[in-house]
Amino acid sequence: MTTLDINGKRHKIDLPDDTPLLWALRDLLGMTGTKFGCGMAVCGACMVHLDGTPTRACVTPISAAAGKKIVTIEAVGNDPVGRKVQDAWLALNVPQCGYCQSGQIMSATALLKQHPRPSDEDIDKAMSVNLCRCGTYQRIRAAIKQAASLNEEPV
Ligand code: FES
Ligand code: FES
Fold first, then answer.
1. Of 38, 132, 133, which is best to mutate to test ligand 1, by the most ligand atoms within 8 angstroms of its C-beta?
2. Which pLDDT tens digit goes with each residue over 62-102?
3. Number of the ligand closest to the Cα of 44
4. Strand partners, 55
5. Which of 37, 39, 131, 154 is the S-S candidate for 45 at Cβ 3.0 to 4.6 Å?
6. Which residues contact 60 (CB under 8 A, 6 or more apart)?
7. From CA 1, how far away is CA 76, in angstroms rounded?
8. 56 in ligand 1 pocket by Cβ < 6 Å?
């Protein structure tokens, strides 16, 4: 039995230790905002935060997530920075098909929490782990910059 702290709630998970966190989130808990893309750490669709660090849930066993604070797309808007990222995504109509976008938002939020004023290089580096088959990269970068400028406002 593994206890996971997800979005501020504790969940008892009766699955083998090496079960990918993504399976626990989607299949056991029904939290389908975190997407399955490649299943092998190359697309970023499954990005969540573990103690604030962007982490691919498809290659993270639940045993490695135990004891850490897990945040998923379902709760990232509770964070002031995450909310600004989501607002910028909406304002700039970033998504096309949308499939990659929850992972993109999780990576962008982690970036802005660490670098409130990211350079283009910071953005490229942080976002290089998230692929978008629809090619929304220009709007993603613009939305990150918009969210960063909004960081000047009081939260
Ligand atoms: S599904 Fe995890 S990186 Fe692609
Ligand atoms: S919006 Fe379609 S994959 Fe990114």
1. 38
2. 999 999 999 999 999 999 999 999 999 999 999 999 999 99
3. 1
4. 48
5. 37
6. 20, 21, 22, 50
7. 26
8. yes
